[in-house]
Amino acid sequence: MWLMEKMMLYTIRRQGITVVIFLMVLSFVTQVGCSRKNDLTGNWKGKITLPKTGKSLSDLEFSLNQKGQEVLGTLTFTKPGDKLPLTGTVTEGKISLSSPMKNGLAVSIIGTWENKRTIKGTAVLDYDTPLLGKRQDQAILELIR
User: Fold this and answer.
1) Where are the extended beta strands (E) located within 7-132?
2) Which of 52, 56, 64, 71 shows the greatest Cβ crowding within 10 Å of its Cβ?
3) 70-82: b or e for each residue (b if 16 or more CB lie within 10 Å)?
């Protein structure tokens, strides 16, 4: 009888510890999720589509870091591996990002943060290269987290 009581007490304690650990993990996950609720920080996959031709460039990666309304990040063209630094702002779901001219390309982005996982808007691509000369294209932009 004594052994049975000890085993039951041990089982109850073990289950209690399991429940406490579960609640702690759940609380942590909830807090992390809530802290990112209104934050662009993270990695995003991107696609730019030229409306005139319908051609898309879908091998884009955006790494963004938001502090308050300020957003800093990097746009990476994954195929050639080229990177452009980004700076900008976010206010009430409206996003504005731009890059300096690098290797003959500068990008300006205006978009709307539609939900936690999607940004849609336009990208203006400014070129200044011997091959393309100075020119500008406007494209449709979609980012997905």
Assistant:
1) 42-49, 56-67, 70-77, 82-91, 94-98, 105-115, 118-129
2) 64
3) ebebebbeeeeee
User: Which has more confidence, 7 or 74?
Assistant: 74
- In whole angstroms, what is the distance from residue 52 CA to residue 54 CA? 6
Segment 18-29, tens digit of pLDDT = 544 444 444 444
> Residue 136: enclosing H or E segment and its boundaries?
strand 133-144
Average pLDDT over residues 24-45: 62
Give strand pairing partners of 60.
46, 77
Burial environment of residue 104 by CB neighbours within 10 A (0 to 12, 13 to 18, 19 or more): middle
Model's pTM, two decimal places? 0.71
